[in-house]
């Protein structure tokens, strides 16, 4: 920028003028110049303050070097907001005396080298279709090699896939005679279908279905070795059903199904609501278990403390460990 008649400008401290926009790398830039300094400039000596601004409609990442005569300063790469929202510059860019001495042919030459950084375009990768393909395989029954019969409904599946997602169910099928249909008792057909869809395509059961059948999902996932679905059902039960009337029952269920999160949550709830829980129908069954009563007494006496991230994993509270995993 050539600033004509710079030495004749009568601007006071804190007063500025703005240059006309100049294009660089497709971005319009303007320069705010304070001939006698900004209000934040040092007052020991008169300075010239400069601020570069992005006049464009889009933000720009830029790195700049400002130069007047033999005075040169550089700024690191920053995000320059659009429409002059932000700027980059210096309150004490150059002493006014040096700026005046740098004038030639009646103007002050302010040079700015601007380097604009453009984000590298990311390749357009198609969304993976593996889960969808696996669900289509389940629905088509192509090359299926095992049949499960649940509540009168036949589910055709692939033993190798079942083995990966529910190994206990696969072991049950492998133990049957070749070609024999495998009857699955005490399981709702809709729950079993959701189990298969999770095994094949990691499709989670609809939230309404999980809310209604959380205990059934916990039972079938534990029964057939589908670990993540079991954790999901366990978490749903804790969130939806833990109350004064169910805490004792859920503690018993957690002990039977080896559910650490549910057990920890139930004990914590019992500690906070001991009197009400002890009046619930399930408490009598808890009293019949010396092991559970010992854990309840410990919880009442000492509490269950959340262990910090820095502590040993073996001693970590189940809630904290689940968050880390």
From TrEMBL:
SUPFAM superfamilies: POZ domain, TRAF domain-like. It comes from the Eukaryota. GO terms for biological process: protein ubiquitination. It holds the Pfam family MATH_2. Transmembrane segments: none annotated. PANTHER family: BTB/POZ AND MATH DOMAIN-CONTAINING PROTEIN 1 (PTHR26379), OS07G0655300 PROTEIN (PTHR26379:SF187). This is BTB domain-containing protein.
